[in-house]
Amino acid sequence: MRLTETVLNGIFRNNPIFRLVLGLCPTLAVTTSVENAIGMGLAATFVLVCSNALVSALRKAIPQSVRIPCYITIIATFVTAVDLLMQAYLPALSESLGIFIPLIVVNCIILGRAEAFAGKNGVVASIADGAGTGAGFTLALMLVAAAREFAGAGTLTLWGDIAAKGLNPSPAALAILPAGGFIVLGLLLALVNKMSDAAAARRGGAPALPRELDCRHCAVCATGGCA
After folding, report:
1. Structural domain tally of the chain?
2. Model pTM?
3. Most buried of 3, 23, 140, 182, CB within 10 angstroms?
């Protein structure tokens, strides 16, 4: 698989949120503003790229019987690094994201890419996969956050003076509440699925389903562990 295709798969065909429906906890929690979404997305991308690279480099040295604990240890190392860096240089953003930065350790997207891709492919391809998946995650977060912030607060906020206010004169506060997060995400998922089906119909084929890193194809299901 070409590196460009690997990156584009992570952004579009296997988008973590809109195609695989993974990482919904931070998606619903931090997307009350575009600023938070970008911060979370970039932090997750850093961890994805670094952990994928190290897992791939060590894949032949890690025993299969302990690979998951090893992967988690590697991921936790990079999560700790990004958490400390954010506390030192972006304290306001770190405080806003709160516990969801440390919780990247248990984000199924990160561990899933280590298990499904980095543990089976070379370092360069694994870096491309991490970058593509991270970009797809970040773009999806930004789209959800933009919809929620615009509808719920009438603004689109970025760092410092980069802010657009008064865009929506009649905001509905529900959009930035937890219930509104579910509603907005559900509507966006329906829209993405509709667009995917329409694109497949124009090509004369069936809608393409993601084939990796979802519940149907995880390591547990593959071994018959799911009921």
Report:
1. 1
2. 0.86
3. 140
CA 43 to chain CA centroid, nearest Å: 10
Give the whole-angstrom CA distance, residue 16 versus residue 45.
12
Q: Would you call 93 helix, strand, or coil by DSSP? A: helix
**Quick check: is 21 in a domain?**
yes
Q: Comparing 128-132, 169-173, 176-180, which segment has the lowest mean pLDDT?
A: 169-173
Token output for 198:
């329409």
Domain boundaries, position 100:
3-222
Residues 6+ apart with CB under 8 A from 204: none
- Report helix, strand or coil for 138: helix
Q: Tell me whether residue 227 is in a domain.
A: no
Under 8 Å between Cβ of 185 and 144? yes
Alpha-carbon gap, residue 133 to 66, rounded angstroms:
25
**Position 91 in a domain:** yes
Distance, CA of 213 to CA of 218 (rounded, Å): 6
How remote is the C-alpha of 202 from its chain's centroid?
Answer: 29
pLDDT band per the 50, 70, 90 thresholds, residue 103: very high
What are the tens digits of pLDDT across the range 1-45?
688 999 999 999 899 999 889 999 999 999 999 999 999 999 999
Q: What are the tokens at 64?
A: 């299969």
Burial of 139: CB neighbours in 10 Å, binned 0-12, 13-18, 19+: middle
Query: Which pLDDT band holds residue 132 (cuts at 50, 70, 90)?
Result: very high
Residue the block writes with tokens 């991270």: 134
- Looking up tokens 């519940």 gives 215
The tokens describing 16, both together, are 């973590």
Write out the two tokens for 111.
Answer: 């561990």
Contact 1, 192 (CB under 8 A): no
